[in-house]
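Duplicate of #3305? Posting structure anyway:
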C-alpha cells in the first residue's frame, strides 16, 4: 500500500469546485465596498476624537475664565468706607 502522497493516506483531499463567473464579478466589488467603508469609519472616528478634544478644551477655558476672577480671594474695596459718626 505504497502511496506517493506526502504524509497521510490521501483520504482527506481538498476539492474546491470552480467559482461561477458571477461570483468572480461580485466579490471584488464587495471587497472594494468594505475597504471604502473602513476608510470612511476611520475618518469619522478621527473627526469624533477631534470634536471631543475641542469640547474639553472649551470646557477647560470656560472654567478657567469663570474661576479666574475668584481665585484671588476677597478683594478690598477701591473707595474708602465712610466712617459713621460716634
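Output from current build:
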Amino acid at each position: 500500500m505504497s502511496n506517493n502522497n506526502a504524509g497521510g493516506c490521501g483520504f482527506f483531499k481538498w476539492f474546491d469546485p470552480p467559482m461561477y463567473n458571477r461570483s468572480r464579478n461580485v466579490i471584488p466589488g464587495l471587497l472594494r465596498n468594505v475597504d471604502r467603508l473602513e476608510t470612511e469609519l476611520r475618518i469619522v472616528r478621527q473627526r469624533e476624537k477631534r470634536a471631543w478634544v475641542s469640547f474639553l478644551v472649551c470646557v477647560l477655558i470656560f472654567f478657567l475664565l469663570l474661576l479666574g476672577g475668584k481665585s484671588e480671594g476677597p478683594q478690598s474695596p477701591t473707595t474708602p468706607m465712610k466712617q459713621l459718626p460716634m
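Confirmed duplicate; merging threads. Residues 18-65 form one domain. Residues 3 and 84 are 120 Å apart (CA to CA).
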